[in-house]
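My main concern about presentation is that the manuscript never shows what a single data entry looks like. An entry of this sort, consisting of the sequence and the corresponding C-alpha cells, reads as follows:
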Amino acid sequence: MKKLLTTLYITLPDAYLALKGENISIIQEEKSIGRVPLHNLEAICTFGRQGASPALMAACMERNIAITFLTTSGRMRGRVIGITNGNVTLRKTQYRISDDEKKSAEIARHFLVGKLYNSKWMLERMTRDHALRIEVEKFKKISLYLTDSMHQLMTIDDLEQLRGIEGNAASAYFSLMDDMILQQKEDFFFKGRNRRPPLDNVNALLSFVYTLLAADVGAALESVGLDAYVGFLHRDRPGRMSLALDMMEELRSVYADRFVLSLINKKQVQASDFVRKESGAVLMTDEARKKIFDLWHRKKDEKIMHPFLKEKISWGLVPHAQALLLARYIRGDLDAYPPILWK
C-alpha cells in the first residue's frame, strides 16, 4: 500500500514559495519565514495570490508533487502536476468510456450507490449513538428512503435518471444535517446547501472541507495514471476535476460531513472562527483554517478496515485505494468498481 505522505497547506495570502536546495522556502515580505523538505511531500495547497517560483514548480513536477492554487476563500484557481503516471492505454480507455454515456452510467451508478449507502449509515449511526437527542423515526424514515433509492439506482443505465435519483436522495439526507448538529446551535445551523459564496458557518465549513477532499482525490487519481479532469457522472468542463468529483461522491458524507459535524459537536470550531462580509458571504479566519488543516491531517491518520481490500489502512489512503480499484476496473482486472461501503 502506498505510503501516506504530507500535504503542505500555505494559508498566508501574501506568501511566496521558492526553491532552496531540496526545500521549499516560504517567503513573506522578502524574508524567509520557514522551510519544508520536498522529500516527504505528496502535494501543496496554497491559499492566496502570490504563487510559486518557476524553479519550485519544476522541482515539484519532477517529483510528482501536485501544487494546487486556491483563492483565500478556498476556490480553485489552478493546478500544476508533473508528467503523467501510468500508461497511455489506461487513459485512452478512460476517455472512451467517458464518451459513451451508457458505459459512464455503469461506473457512475457505483459511485452513487456508495454515496447513498454511506449517507444511510451516517443516519443509522446517529440513531444508535444519539437516540435521546434526535427524532429517531424521522431518521429511520429517510434511511429507508435512501435504501429504496439505492435499489432504484441498480436498475438504471441513464445518466440523467441517475442524477435525478441522487439529487432527491441528497436533498433528503441534507434535510437532517441540522438535526445532526448537537452543539452550538445558535451559531451553527443548516437550512440548506449554499455556496459561491457560502452564507452561513456550516456551509463555509462544508465548502472548505470539500475543497480539501477534492484536492486529495485528484492527486490520488493522477498518481495511478487516470485523468482527474475526465469524469463519468460529472461531464467535462474546463478547469473542473470531474473524475475527482465523481469519486468524492462516495466519500462526502462518511469522510467530509462527519469531519465537519465533529468539528462543531466537539466545539473544535466556534463562531469567532468566521467573519461575515458586507455581501453576506461567510469566510473562515486564517487561524481557523490552520486549526482545521491540523485536524484534517489527524483525521487522515485514523485507521479503518477497508471492506473490499480486507486491509487496515488510514483514512488518508482511502482515496488512493479507491483510485487504484477504479484503474483496475478500467483496465479490465475487476468485473465492477467497488465503492467503499462504510458501516
